[in-house]
Amino acid sequence: MDHTTVINEKIYDMNFLAAWIKYTRIKKHYSQEALCHGICSISHLSYFENGKKPLRPEIIQLLLQRLSLNLNNNLTNIGHIRQKFNTMTSYIETFDHKGAKKIYDELIAIEQILSTSPYYIEFQIYTLIYNTFVINDKYDDLRNNVEMLDKIADSLSNELKSIYFLVSGKLMINTELNEQGLERLQTSRKIKETTWINYTLGRACCFSNSSSKGTYYLEKALVNYENSGLYLNAIWCHNYLGVCYSNLKLYKSAEKHFNAALTSAKHFQFDDLLSHIYTSISDLYLNKGDYEKCIEWSLIGINYTCRHNICVYNYILANINLKQYDSCDIMFEKYLNEDIQNKFSYSILYFLYLVVHHFDDELFYNEIKNNLLPYFESIKRLDIVRDVKLKFIEYLENHRKYKEANQLYKELLSETM
């Protein structure tokens, strides 16, 4: 609804009133029939709540009174508050979490006032953005918020609806709910295409077996970020474009984007990005089968940062392919026990330890089938799952377990289609 209304000599947006009424009705366990009894028809309330048709001001006032909602609060300048919402979101998009936290703290200070206004829904959506992108909360932590906001999404303005589907989609992607997350991100983009949604959607596609789509969205985001002078965002686009092209085996294109990311990160002294870029380049050469270069870049990544798990994994796997097992043992001795408290890091190194030292043993079969493969599948690390299945197939064929090997082949084919 692109309408405003005047209540008590103040102008209000119909969408916010509709969302507020629907949100409060659901929280207070009112049915539509109970709320509108003696005030308006159920169909009129339904159309209003779902953003289809406006209601007259006097009807809205009666609905608010029945829900014990009062428009006469101390919220005097919603425009100023919306400016804070937008500023915080801009900080988050450009990875300025310190700036975002400062604005968020200012908003939290007036939460009590906002909670008694039609704009509380807007506050909740921007809080969800902060918790998802800055705090990195998981879906289970915010499930109740999302489920409640889902019920009133139709009442939101297109602007808020697009932002809501972006953040809830990203939240689901973070928690490996990839299909639902991608669907929400696509919905956000259909409502309103922005550079941020193109970047977020492209990155999500990159890790969801949709790399060709990922390149499309990321290339669009890259152009806009570069034209806007947002070079940190542009570097992240280059990095994930490199990952997408590497997944597609278009290695020259991948190298071009990784080199652009590396050169820019060093030039602008974005040191925090270097560990990600080194890991991505290490992945590239492993996928390409250039094991010597993979080892070279893995060591650069290992020596640069303590965020070493994938670089160590790539280093060992490249040495396995070159049959340089002594180099593998050096890494096992240094990192396997150190990473025992981190289940993912320990599991990927333990898998490679089994490959090097127990590949012909029944221990390999039992650990892969009963523990490691189910674990990697449960956390949806498709790259590691593929490596594990390929080695498991090799083991099964060596031991003439052709039926099991054939089943894994079929699974791999379906996962790459």
From TrEMBL:
Xref: InterPro entries: Cro/C1-type_HTH, Lambda_DNA-bd_dom_sf, TPR-like_helical_dom_sf, TPR_rpt
Domain HTH cro/C1-type, first and last residues per copy: 21-74
Database matches in SUPFAM superfamilies: lambda repressor-like DNA-binding domains (SSF47413), TPR-like (SSF48452)
A GO molecular-function descriptor: DNA binding
PROSITE patterns: HTH_CROC1
Domain of life: Bacteria
Pfam families from the UniProt entry: TPR_8
Protein name per UniProt: HTH cro/C1-type domain-containing protein
